[in-house]
Amino acid sequence: MPTKVRTADTRERILTAACEAIAEIGFEKIRMRMVAERAGVSTALLHYHFDTREKLFTEAMAHSFANTAVDVERDAGTAPAAVILARILRSLLPTDAVLHQDWRLWQELWVRALRDESTRVFAVDLYAELHAWVSGAVRRGIESGEFTPTDVDELATLVLSLSDGYGIRLMLRDPMVTLDKALASIWRHIAGALGLPETVPAD
């Protein structure tokens, strides 16, 4: 196996292990040795790729987001714009086990961002990426004629804000909020702004 491939595979295993460990026990309790053991690598090799816990944490967050985005946009050039936007909405909520883990990571990020300036800046940058992701999907739909023109940035901000609010309630297992209700409620705002049916599109 070529060196570059081995290196990429090692980083992938480490980042996957870091996401799992942070989601399970929290960033403050995590130790580099724990991640190394879970990834099946030596502590020295882990430190070669990530010299601090903070760097490992930020890379794990970016890795988690990137993997979700790739899966959602796998056929963005051929699928209806409403289907892609509905996929994005589902990915912004804890709709399955993987996204439930992602939400735990986000909650760790929020807590750390309140106490650490570099993490706060990183969190704001990640939100900018999420905003660009949502707004990009909306703009593609407007340009293709599938969506009614609207204030794209305002809609993207609303979608992210509603997703955060509902997502927190879902993570708390609040009996007043179900996943279906959350999806339907957010989609109604999207549909109203873009001239779409109020039923969330099936994938």
TrEMBL record:
- Going by the entry's taxonomy, the superkingdom of the source organism is recorded as Bacteria
Keyword annotations for this protein, in alphabetical order, are: DNA-binding, Repressor, Transcription, Transcription regulation
Under PROSITE patterns, the record lists: HTH_TETR_2
Q: Which InterPro entries match?
A: BetI_C (IPR039538), Homeodomain-like_sf (IPR009057), HTH-type_TetR-like_transc_reg (IPR050109), HTH_TetR (IPR001647), Tet_transcr_reg_TetR-rel_C_sf (IPR036271)
Q: Which residues bind DNA?
A: 31-50
Start and end of every HTH tetR-type domain? 8-68
Q: Which GO terms describe its molecular function?
A: DNA-binding transcription factor activity; transcription cis-regulatory region binding
Any single Pfam family the record assigns to this protein = TetR_C_6
Keyword Repressor included in the entry's annotation: yes
Recorded hits in PANTHER family, A to Z, give:
HTH-TYPE TRANSCRIPTIONAL REGULATOR BETI, HTH-TYPE TRANSCRIPTIONAL REGULATOR RUTR
Q: What is this protein called?
A: HTH tetR-type domain-containing protein
Per the UniProt record, the source organism is Streptomyces phaeofaciens
